[in-house]
Every structure is written in structure tokens, then in C-alpha cells.
Amino acid sequence: MVKHMMRESALISQIQSRLEVVLKEVPSVRLKESREDVEVRDARLDLVLDVAVARERWRLLVETTTIAEPRLIRGVIQQLQSYLADRPKSYGIVGAPYIGPRSREICKEAGYGFVDLAGNCRLVFGPIFIERRGFPNPKLERRPLRNLFTPKASRVLRVLLEDTKQTWQVQAMAKQARVSLGLAFKVKQRLLDLEYAQEEDKGLRLTRPEELLRQWATNYSYLKSDALDCFAIGDPPALEQALTAYCRQQGITYALALFSGAARVAPFARYSRGFAYAVCDAASLAQELVWKPVPSGANFTILAPYDEGLLYGARQVNGDIVVSDIQLYLDLVSYAGRGEEAAAFILDQRLRPRW
What residues make up the domain containing 62? Predict the structure, then answer.
């Protein structure tokens, strides 16, 4: 408990210093007084700054939070609203170690300012307009279930993203995603905290699927799966045919991916390299197909999926198994150059119409 209180106290002091520096850079603003832990209407406010702007005197009321997730930010704003009621020339500000884009937008929509220790801030009161943005989170959290995009947690995302109009009870969601009930519940809470989803009478439903997918893509690379680059005689379609025929014959689970998959569902452009996931030893598969592993100049890559979730939603297209549109997007967007263009095409032509 003491350690937590020390963290809160340190944050308040740092936010105070940051605000004072920002305000002093504006010639028309003079800081008159700055106080921590101030009693306001039978409650304690983290920070109060009195400033003079031209001939007006403004009082800036600041509440801080160590975690600035959207749902928590709304709670801080509600607190500030009660303090600001019937107080002219007063302005509410949220302070935190880092305030992400969605939380910043919530503050802006509510008419409140914000400041974080990364350097982002927005203060709009009287004639003053100060805005600084684009500073990344200097301390990204890496705790497993703080991250929605771990292999097992992302299985739940795949289920939700495949049909964004469906609502899910936790038990059904866990069963469909093949994860524990406890993990499914934690993912649900995280999605609610970040306002990617909302809880309705019949269960959980995604409300911001594209933003969730884009955020996932920034934490993803197709190279998380073991990749074997090969060269063989023939163009990608011929090599795809050879691989799919062998996998069907041998009962090997496979799915065409990246450009090979995209060519089946949303033809975008010619491609010179094929890709497929195969649940087997890639080196043995290449040997059976008489493909040569190479360090460069490959025209086909065999991928061993790092988690079974990668093949969730795989479907048959003209006789071939192709990964889901979600997986196509994730893989392609992480493939620099033409991959990003093809991913944008999948998003526009396949995913947005469903959402």
C-alpha cells in the first residue's frame, strides 16, 4: 500500500512539473500558485494551479491516474465534472504517465485537457490553445495478460473478429477459441477496458474491430512462425498445386497464406513468391517436394504456425485451403512493400464490408 501511495505521489509531482513547464512557455500565461492535495467540496483533488491569462484568472483542476485506459479515463472525467460544477473560469485536466490516442479523444470530446509524462498534452481554456502529440509510450507494458496479442489471448480475438455482429457469452467464447474460461474472461475485461467491445444483453460484441486489428498488426509479424525459404522449378501457382496435392494425400494440415492466399480471395497483383502454413516438419516436406532450402532467392516459403489459432477460420476456396481474411491481413501487413498494399486491399475489399 505504501509503495502504491509513493507512486501516486511521485506521479502528481511529475505532472505538476510538466504542467508548470508547459504553461511557462506561453508568454500570456503567468503561474500564480500551484498546490498538491487540495480539498475541494469535501474531497481531495490531486493538483490545483492558479494562472493569470491576460486580465483573467483561471483555476486548473488536475486529477491523475497511473493507468489511463479509456474506461478509467471516463471515471476521472466524472470526478472532475463534480469538482467543476458551478465554478466559472475553471478547467479540468487529466494527468497520467501515458495517455493513448483513444483516451486523448475521450478527453477532447468531453472538453477536458490532458497531459502525460511522454510529452503529449492538450490545454484549451480561455484564449489558450496548447497541443502536443505524437510522443510514444516510453514504458510499454509487457505483462502477459496486459497484452491482448499473446498467442492464446489472440485466439479469442480471432473468434470475435470473424463475426463482429455476433454476441458472445464467455463460456461459448472460451470453447470456440479453445482457451480456458479464466483467460477468456480476462480478455473480455481487457477489451471492455480499452473500449474495443461493449457488453450487451446477449453478451460481448466488438464495436471497434478495425482499430483492434490495426493495433494487433503493430504487434505482429508473420516471422513469429518458423519459416523455411525454398527454391524450386516452377512459378508460385505450380508450386502451390504441388504442395496442396501432397498435403491432401498425406493428411497434413495446411493453408495457403500471404500472397498465395490473397490470390484466391481478392486478386491484387502478380506475385513471385508463394507462402503456405503446414503443420509438419517443414524440412521434411521440402525434401519430399524436391524443393531446395536457400538463404536467398526463394520462390516459396513454408511456415510452421507458432500457434493453432493461426489456422482458425481457414476455409476452402476452389479446392484449396486458405487462411482466414484476418490472418491474411496480419501476415501481409507485416510483409514490407507489396504486402502492405495487399493487406490494405484485403481490409477494404473483404473485411470492412463484413463489419
Answer: 2-132
